[in-house]
Design goal:
It contains twelve helices and 19 strands. By secondary structure, the protein is α/β, with parallel strands linked by helices. It folds into three domains: 6-43 and 209-251 and 318-370, Rossmann fold; 49-89 and 187-198 and 253-316, no CATH class; 103-176, no CATH class. Bound molecules: flavin-adenine dinucleotide (FAD). Flavin-adenine dinucleotide binds next to helix 1, strand 3 and helix 12.
Amino acid sequence: MVLQKMKYDFVIVGAGFAGAVLAERISEVLKKRVLLIEKRDHICGNCYDEYDEYGILIHKYGPHIFHTNSSTVFKYLSNFTEWRKYEHKVLAKYNNELFPIPINRLTISKFFNINLAENEVELFLKKQCEQTQKIDNSEDYVVSRIGQKLFDAFYKEYTYKQWGKYPAELSASVCRRLPIRSNDDSRYFTDKFQYMPAEGFSSLFKSMLSNPKIDIMLGKDYKSVIENISYKKLIYTGPLDYYFDYNLGKLNYRSIEFVLQNYKKVSFQESPVVNYVNKYVPFTRISEFKKITGQFADTTTICKEFASNKGEEYYPIIDAENLQLLKKYKKKTRRFANTIFIGRLAEFKYYNMDQIVARALKVFNHLAEQF
Ligand SMILES: Cc1cc2nc3c(=O)[nH]c(=O)nc-3n(C[C@H](O)[C@H](O)[C@H](O)COP(=O)(O)OP(=O)(O)OC[C@H]3O[C@@H](n4cnc5c(N)ncnc54)[C@H](O)[C@@H]3O)c2cc1C
C-alpha cells in the first residue's frame, strides 16, 4: 500500500518567533495551509514560559524581557496579547555591594565614593581614561570610555564568565551594546515600548498560532518526517549547519545552564536581575521571575545562569572563524531557492525578540508579493 503524503503549502521548521510570525501571516493573509514542525514538546521557542510546581510563571530558557522602539512590531503583537507595563532593572554585585547597571552617575558616585553632578560625569570619566590610539577590541573600547578601574570591576571578569573570553579577545561591538550614562537613568532599556505580555509569552504564541489553517507537529525533528510531507515552500529556522548535516563544520555557540530554585519567601533579591561580576562567583546572574512578570505569590523562584561551551545553542559566537564558516554555509543556501532561512539559528545572528518579529514581517511582505 502506498501511503498518501501530507499536503501543505508551507512547512515551517521551528516554533519560535520567526516561525510563529510567518505561520500566522501566511495562514491569515495568504490563506495558505501551514505545517509547523517543532522538535521540542512546546511552541514558543526560547521565549517559552510555564508555571512551575510552585505556581510561579518561569521562563524556561532564561529571562525574556520585551522592549522595542518599533510601533509596527508593538502594534502587530498587540493583536495577540494584552500588555503589562514593565521597565527592566539590573544591579551588579561587585565585592558584595550592589551598583546600578548600565553604569550611570549613581554607579560612578558609589564606586568612587564621591558625589558628582550630572554635568561633571563626562569630565570625571575622561580623567579616568588613558588615551587609546586604536580601538581594536572590547577592552580598548570600555577603557577609553570609562577607564581601567570601572572596566576591571564591571566588565573584565563578567565578560570572561559570559563568553569564556576576556574583553581584549572580543570585538568592540560586544561591550559597546551596553550604554554608559552620565544621568541617573537606572532602567536597563530606554525603548519607547517596554511591556511584558500580560498572560506570558506562551499565551501570546497560542493566540498567534490559533488559525485552523496551521497544523502543529511537536516533538519531531523535521528531518525525521519531511519525506512524508509534500509542500511548496520550506521556511527553516533551525541551526544553519544542521540543515547541511554539518558538512562544512560546526558553528560555535555559547550555551547556558539554567538552575532554578524556589524559596519560601516573598522576595529573594533587590531587583529583577542581579549580575555577579566577580569571577569567584561561578554563575553570571540571578533572575527573580516574579519581579519580571509582576506575579504576586508567597514563594519565589529564581534562575541562576552558568555559561558554558556545551549544551543547547543560545548565543552565536561572532568571531573570525565562525564568520568565515557562516559565509561558506550562506553560499550553499543560494542553491536552495525553495527554502527561506530565517532566525537566530538559521542566520547565526543574535536577534532580540522585537528584531526577529520585524525581520519575519519583512520576509513575509516579500513572500506575499510572490503568492
Ligand atoms: C538566554 C537568552 C535570553 C534572551 N533574552 C532576551 C530578552 O530579554 N529580550 C529579547 O528581546 N530577546 C531575548 N533573547 C532572544 C530571543 O530568544 C530571540 O530573539 C528569539 O528566540 C529568536 O527567535 P527564533 O525564532 O529565531 O529562534 P528560537 O526561539 O530559538 O526558535 C527556533 C526553534 O526551532 C526549533 N528547532 C531547531 N531545530 C529544529 C529541528 N531540526 N526540527 C524542528 N525544530 C527545530 C527550536 O527547538 C526552536 O524552538 C534571549 C535569548 C536567549 C538565548
